[in-house]
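Ops channel
N.P.: pipeline sanity check, posting one input/output pair.
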């Protein structure tokens, strides 16, 4: 992916989500391995392994046009009691990598089991892409298992995804609208947050002019298609504060159809602090009049001070997912990237999307869990 910060490593746990790996680089920051995708729950409790997930978006030291990198600050993570009343409306995956590992640890290390269970107790997003197979069926099955809770999906299948970098892939331009229509059909009346195409808007620079126009048209159509689903809240990805200046991002979001969406999404799989994201989001909101959501899964201590973007150490869990943010204009704090799933084979980590207990425990401890 382009130079942003880590995105999300996906997890593929039976009956929960499928993923894909990758990262990109556009000269600003790169992200981490991504997708957690919706998979069918065929044998609950039995894991099928991990699907590679997109690599993290790096957050290198910003260049002249970048927003200055914020000084890492600590955003208190949720209490160790697990899910709170504020995230009770969001669906929690009972067979996530974290949930499975907590069960394994329960008999041997109660403290570590408690820390991993804390992660497992949080609602997390499911990533959709070519790894999802029949995406309509995958989404429909996830909706059927939601028990009336609100789901979160990430659509990550834009043509020439991640500019051909770590998370390279995506469908063909002529197929993309049909794929989005399948997602909408599978969703039906299910309530869900839909994060539309992480990096796609911020990474326009890697495409020739004709391809840029095509991508913006695809995103605009995708918003309109998804908004036909009565329970869908659609947020177009808007990068993060250390990537593109607000005026540039605002103009691109307008061209991508954000005015027909519910808003925009920030910090997907990244580590930028909550405070910095809120400030950047408010600037965009003043230009667009649209609300936003923030990925707070791993930003409890902000980005690595040395610019490490792939499996940076000494990072911390961020704010628990909630619909009650207490911040005007912020519709939700979400865990889009799944803490504990590797950004890729870097800094001692396993392949993208694979569960890495060591770093999961480290982030929990750093957050005071």
């Amino acid at each position: 992916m382009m130079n942003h910060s880590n995105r999300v490593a996906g997890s593929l746990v039976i009956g929960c989500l499928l993923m894909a790996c990758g990262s990109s680089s556009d000269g600003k920051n790169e992200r981490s391995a991504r997708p957690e995708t919706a998979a069918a729950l065929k044998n609950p409790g039995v894991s099928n392994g991990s699907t590679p997930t997109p690599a993290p978006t790096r957050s290198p030291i910003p260049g002249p046009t970048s927003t200055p990198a914020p000084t890492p600050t600590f955003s208190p993570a949720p209490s160790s009691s697990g899910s709170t009343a504020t995230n009770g409306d969001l669906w929690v995956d009972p067979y996530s990598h974290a949930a499975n590992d907590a069960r394994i640890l329960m008999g041997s290390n109660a403290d570590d089991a408690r820390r991993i269970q804390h992660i497992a107790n949080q609602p997390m997003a499911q990533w959709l892409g070519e790894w999802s197979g029949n995406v309509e069926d995958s989404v429909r099955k996830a909706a059927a298992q939601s028990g009336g809770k609100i789901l979160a999906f990430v659509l990550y299948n834009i043509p020439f995804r991640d500019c051909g970098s770590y998370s390279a892939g995506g469908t063909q331009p002529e197929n993309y609208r049909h794929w989005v229509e399948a997602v909408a059909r599978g969703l039906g009346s299910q309530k869900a947050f839909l994060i539309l195409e992480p990096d796609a808007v911020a990474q326009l620079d890697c495409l020739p002019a004709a391809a840029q126009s095509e991508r913006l048209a695809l995103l605009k159509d995708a918003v309109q298609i998804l908004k036909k689903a009565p329970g869908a809240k659609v947020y177009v990805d808007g990068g993060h504060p250390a990537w593109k200046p607000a005026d540039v991002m605002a103009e691109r979001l307008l061209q991508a159809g954000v005015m027909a969406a519910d808003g925009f999404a920030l910090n997907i799989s990244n580590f930028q602090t909550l405070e910095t994201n809120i400030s950047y989001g408010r600037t965009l909101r003043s230009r667009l009049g649209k609300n936003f959501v923030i990925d707070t899964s791993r930003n409890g201590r902000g980005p690595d001070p040395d610019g490490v973007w792939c499996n940076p150490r000494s990072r911390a869990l961020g704010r628990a997912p909630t619909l009650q943010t207490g911040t005007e204009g912020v519709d939700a704090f979400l865990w889009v990237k799944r803490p504990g799933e590797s950004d890729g084979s870097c800094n001692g980590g396993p392949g993208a999307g694979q569960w890495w207990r060591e770093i999961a425990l480290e982030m929990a401890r750093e957050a005071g869990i």
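N.P.: looks fine end to end. The two ends are 31 Å apart (CA to CA).
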